[in-house]
Amino acid sequence: MAENPLAAIRRFNKEDIKKILKIEQQAFPKTPYSKGTFLSYAKGLPDGFLVLETGTDIAGYIIFDMGGHVHSTAVKPAYRRKGFGTMLFMHAVSCVQKRLWLEVRSKNDSAIGFYHSVGMKTVRRIPSYYSNDDALIMILDDKS
Ligand SMILES: CC(C)(COP(=O)(O)OP(=O)(O)OC[C@H]1O[C@@H](n2cnc3c(N)ncnc32)[C@H](O)[C@@H]1OP(=O)(O)O)[C@@H](O)C(=O)NCCC(=O)NCCS
To answer: What percent of the chain is helix, strand and coil (3-state, nearest 5)?
Structure first.
């Protein structure tokens, strides 16, 4: 994807929290991370909690650790299908020496479609990992 001159990826800072909570509520209305969870990620993974800024707005975020585990990612509905999710994901790929991996709800077709589009493969299914769904473990196999 061509670089988008209107979008910049940077570390989360505390002033972003309101916008991140709004994105979270829209992306995961039933299971949003709390303010405390985001602030604790910011403290524990300062290099792995990134936001994508476009103009004065924040279009999305990604949280990952240096072991390659993607803890969460979301893009605001109004900014979806514009390549921002891919920009965040590929930025994480460039930051981590390990292969990126994650768990995703097996019924989350849109996220699974997105992860396939960036080259992830399903390697395992964990029944009832979530209270009402199985988890798929997906891995990006580009650094083996
Ligand atoms: C998953 C998510 C982060 C993708 O963000 P995005 O900015 O829309 O992604 P991109 O624009 O980079 O999409 C790249 C490609 O992924 C695939 N894709 C994205 N959304 C998709 C969808 N709803 N259904 C199927 N494929 C999809 C497409 O191939 C897309 O390319 P295209 O638009 O040219 O067809 C976003 O949909 C989101 O925030 N979802 C809710 C939160 C969530 O489920 N997060 C993951 C939890 S594990």
So the answer is: 35, 35, 30
Q: Tokens standing for 123?
A: 């390697």
Whether pTM > 0.85 for this model: the answer is: yes
User: For the segment 40-77, what is each residue's pLDDT rounded down to a tens digit?
Assistant: 999 999 999 999 999 999 999 999 999 999 999 999 99
Compute the distance from residue 143 Cα to the ligand 1 centre, in Å: 23
Which residue ranges of the chain lie beneath pLDDT 50? 1, 144
- Give the tens place of pLDDT for each residue, 38-50: 999 999 999 999 9
Q: Which atom of ligand 1 is nearest to the CA of 115?
A: 16
> What is the distance in A from the centroid of ligand 1 to the CA of 81?
6
Which residues make Cβ contacts (< 8 Å) with residue 48, sequence separation at least 6?
Answer: 41, 63, 64, 65, 66, 92, 95
**Cβ–Cβ < 8 Å for 78, 53:** no
Atom of ligand 1 nearest to the CA of 1: 12
CATH class of the domain defined by 1-97: alpha beta
